Amino acid sequence: MQENSSPNNSPKIFNPKVFNMPEPAPANDPALLRIEGAVATITLNRPAAFNAIDLAIAKKLEALGAEVEANKDVRVLVIEGEGRAFCAGGDLQTIGAAAEADNIPAVVGEMLAHYHAFITALRRMPKLVLASVHGSAAGAGLSLAFMADLCIAAEDARFTPAYAKIGVSPDGGGTVGLTAAVGPRRALQIFLAEDNFTAQQAQQWGLVAKVVPAAELKAATREFALRLAQNAPAGLAATKALIHQAPTTPIEAQLDAERDGIIACMNSEEFRVAVKKFTGKSK
């Protein structure tokens, strides 16, 4: 059927800016963000380099992390990798070139300034961060997986500390997230004595919440994220903050923080609705 070509009926070209919608990100962006309701997803998007961290992706992650942190509608952030790996760690091409040029402090320092700003935002933001890991998570990729608040992994996932193999210490929050989950002795074992370990081992050590078949990872991650997003924002944010500060906070201060947190949550509309619903059922 031929379209009416008169001026009043001419087909209109869709312009995302008119509707205040973000334009699609270029496919070659080193990291991508999509937001679907209460769930945001950051995708590491350097599949040809197994999503290794270089300056470009570090800068992009810092920007995307800030965007998610500022979005009041998001309750859960998922971090995933495009291609065959979650993240192979720091980009050794970049680091090797810096070593050849005797310029490591400037190059690595700049890269980590941006990347660590992203990691700091993950811990600070009042949203739950869920890492969805498949393939390889090595070096900074391993650190990222366990710096997230929770981790779901495919059965084929392999975690490789990698740092000891090249004679360096961990970065990317590895000594924070992993140590908090397994304790200092196991952390020393993992970073200094483990070549790699499986998703099943990671689950046994308390590092991974769920292990699923590789073909089911996307769907299982989505289901897990939606389940987490059912939590009221105030309760989710307060629980995350309290749990992460507990290991380094004196008991009196922690109990005061618990008091302040629960009172603040009880002042929310979600709490009032939930209490009415619960007390109504109990009569």
Provide structural commentary:
With 283 residues, the protein is of the alpha/beta class. The chain has two domains: 200 residues, 2-enoyl-CoA Hydratase, Chain A, domain 1 (Alpha-Beta Complex); 48 residues. Helix content is 48%, strand content 14%. A six-stranded mixed sheet has the order 1-2-3-4-6-9, sandwiched between helices.
Radius of gyration: 22 Å
The separation of the N and C termini measures 63 Å
What percentage of the residues does DSSP assign to strands (E)?
5-15%
> What share of the residues lie within helices?
40-55%
Mean pLDDT: 91
CATH class designation of the largest domain: Alpha Beta
Whole-number count of domains: 2
Q: Kindly state the number of beta strands.
A: 9
- Low-pLDDT stretches are 1-22
CATH architecture level-2 label of the largest domain: Alpha-Beta Complex
Structure class: alpha/beta
Shape: globular
User: What is the CATH superfamily classification of the largest domain?
Assistant: 2-enoyl-CoA Hydratase, Chain A, domain 1
Q: From the 3D structure, determine the CATH topology of the largest domain.
A: 2-enoyl-CoA Hydratase, Chain A, domain 1
* Biggest sheet descriptor: 6 strands, mixed
Protein name: 1,2-epoxyphenylacetyl-CoA isomerase
Keywords: Isomerase
GO molecular function: isomerase activity
Family: Belongs to the enoyl-CoA hydratase/isomerase family.
